[in-house]
Every structure is written in structure tokens, then in C-alpha cells.
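Summary: Need help interpreting a holo structure output

Steps to reproduce:
1. Submit the protein chain below together with the SMILES for zinc ion.
2. Request a joint structure prediction with the ligand placed.
3. Inspect the C-alpha cell block that comes back.

Expected: a single structure record containing both the chain and the bound molecule.
Actual: see attached output.

Input attached:
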Amino acid sequence: MYASGAVGALCLLAVSAFSQAVCECNPADPATLEARQCSLCTEAEKQVSRGVFFLKDSSPRKPNRWLALPSGHLPGQHHLHELSAHERTALWTAAIAKAKELWGEEWGLAYNGPKVRTQCHTHIHMGKLLRMVETRNFITVSGPAQIPAPENEGIWVHPAGNKLHVHLGEQTTETVLMR
Ligand SMILES: [Zn+2]
Ligand SMILES: [Zn+2]
Ligand SMILES: [Zn+2]
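--- attached output ---
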């Protein structure tokens, strides 16, 4: 019984991942935010002050995860590359500060690629970087303003001395973080 429930949940996820491609949420029309993939838009609407806000991941399977999100909306899929450079830098800067507060020098940030994102509203996963996840597919930058915003890739970031490693070229990135 539990097993079939799990399979059912997976199907739902697959459906929502597919339907996100045509997300038509519009914050001016609250009824359009009721779709499952728009629940983070509803959270953004609850924010009283503008700017970056943080949420604990609502999944009971990810008890150590947090999210960093801009309070503002973008049309449809809210892609990271559609934010202005200033907004993107503010988002990464706030996420790094919060992740450091949570995990010290073991912090990691992950933005899933457009093919696997299941929530439309822009969000960066924050968590503790798992050991042994290092790959060769990274660039080294000095700070958040230099983190690129490729259109079709996920991004994960972690500290490397006083610089940052920015890993590119993957879709599912949040798996480098402890659940
Ligand atoms: Zn939406
Ligand atoms: Zn939104
Ligand atoms: Zn690295």
C-alpha cells in the first residue's frame, strides 16, 4: 500500500514537472496560483517586505534544506536568467549569507535546471554540501556578481578558499546537498 502510494506520488511529480512548461500563473489573479507548481508564488505573495526571503523546504524528506527566493514574480517559469543582474546578485548574496549561518564553511547552494524544476517561482536550494560530490565541471569566481546565468543549465555553488566554485552543465543539482 505504501509502495503504491509512493508510485502515485512520483506520477504526480512527473505530471507537475511536465505541466510547468505551460505555467500561466499571474499574481494579479490569485486563482491561477492554486496550481501545485505555483505554491512558492503563494509564499512570495505572503511576504510583507520586498527583497529576498527564506523558507524551510516543506518536504519532510528534506529536513535540512532551506530555500532562498526573490519576493518578486516573473512571468511563467521565473527563470533565474530572467532576473536583472542586480536582482540575481542580491539573491545569491543573501543565499550565501544565510547558508553560511546554517552550515559554516560546509554550505552549498543549488539551482536546478529548467528541465527538472517542479516549482515555477525562482528558488535556490540551501544546504550542507555532501562530501565527494566535486566534479571538474566548474569555474572559479570571486563573488556572487560573477556567477553566470546560463539559460538551460542548473548551477551549484560552494566555497573554495576565499573564492567560489560554480558548477555548471547539469540539470538536477540539489542532490549535492544533504537532504
Ligand atoms: Zn506558476
Ligand atoms: Zn512567482
Ligand atoms: Zn567544486
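--- end attachment ---

Reviewer comment: Confidence is low (pLDDT under 50) at residues 1-20. Residues 41, 44, 73, 78, 121 surround zinc ion (ligand 2) (CB under 6 Å).
Status: needs-info
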